[in-house]
Amino acid sequence: MPASYAYLGPEGTFTEVALRTLPEAATRELVPYVSVQSALDAVRAGEAEAAFVPIENSVEGGITTTLDELVAGTPLMIYREVLLSITFALLVRPGTKLSDIKTVTAHPAAQPQVRNWLKQHLPDTAWESAASNADGARLVQEGRYDAAFAGEFAAARYGLEVLETGIHDAENAQTRFVLVGRPARPAAPTGADKTSIVLWQRDDHPGGLRDLLDEFATRGVNLMLLQSRPTGAGIGNYCFCIDAEGHISDRRVAETLTGLKRICLQARFLGSYPRADVRPTEVRDPLPGTSDDEFVSAADWVARCQDGRF
Q1: What digits encode the pLDDT tens for the residues 214-247?
Q2: What is the 3-state secondary structure (H, E, C) of 114-176?
Q3: From the centroid of its chain, how far is CA 170?
Q4: Using CA atoms, how far apart are residues 206 and 231, in angstroms rounded to an integer?
Q5: Phi and psi for 23 in degrees, rounded to 5?
Q6: Strand 88-92 relative to strand 161-167, pairing
Q7: How many CB atoms lie within 10 A of CB 3?
C-alpha cells in the first residue's frame, strides 16, 4: 500500500490545512485529487493508504457528496476526524476592485456560509460552483471568474490578492473532516469516541424511524448526527447516516448495533474513532441499566443461567 494520503485538492484547500494538523501527515506523501469521489476511489483502488475529505459543517450539516460516497460502493471506514474553524477571504486577480466583480466561485458548501455577506456586498454577482475552494482560486487565476471565496492562505499559491478577509455569516463556523481507509480493526477506545453507521429500513411504515431510535435510547446511547439520504430507488426511499457517542467495544454501543442489525434490511459500519473535541462519552439517559458495567453484569448473569450456575 502506498504511504500516501489522498485529499480534496488542489493545493491550498481547507482540507489540506486540516490534514496537515494530523501528526501522521508529516510522514506521508499528500496527493491532491479533483473531487471527494476520486480521493475515496484512490483508496478503494489501492492507490492511496487513506483519503482525507470534508464530511460535515456547522452551518449546513452533512456534506452530501461524502456521505453518499460512504453509503455506496465498496465499504470504507473512518479512522480519524479533525475540526477546523472556517473563515473565508475574497480572492481576486491583482488590481480588481469590488465594483469590478460580476462572477464569483467556490465549493458549493461555502455558499451557505457567505450567502448574507454576498447579498449585502455583491447582490448582483453570479455564483458558480467549483470542485473546491482552492480550485475556485485557480479558476480566478485563469480568468474564468472574477473572484473566489477561499482560505486567505490560497492567495499566494495562485498569485491572487486578498480583497476582503474574515468573511462568514455564522460565528465560530467549523468544518469536520475525516480520514478514511479500507476496513480493518478499529483503534482501541479512548473514552472520547464516536461511532458512525448507515441504516436501511426493511420497509416504510409508521414509527419506522422511531424503531431505529429506540435501539439507541433504551441503551442510553446519544446521537450526534442523523441525516437521511436517498437510496436512488425512488421518491421516499431513504437510508440514515448516524453518528453516535461511544465505541463499538462499549457494551451498550455493541448491543445497540446488534439490535439495529436485527431490525434493519441492511447496516453498514463506518467506524469507531476518537472524537476531535476529546469530550468524554457520558451516559445521559436517566433510565437505570445503561452503564457498561450493568451491561456486563447482565450478560454474565445470562451466561451463568445457561450454565446452571444461577
Answers
A1: 999 999 999 999 999 988 787 878 899 999 999 9
A2: HHHHHHHHCCCCEEEECCCHHHHHHHHHCCCCCEEEECCCHHHHCCCEEEEEEECCCCCCEEE
A3: 19
A4: 19
A5: -55, -40
A6: antiparallel
A7: 10
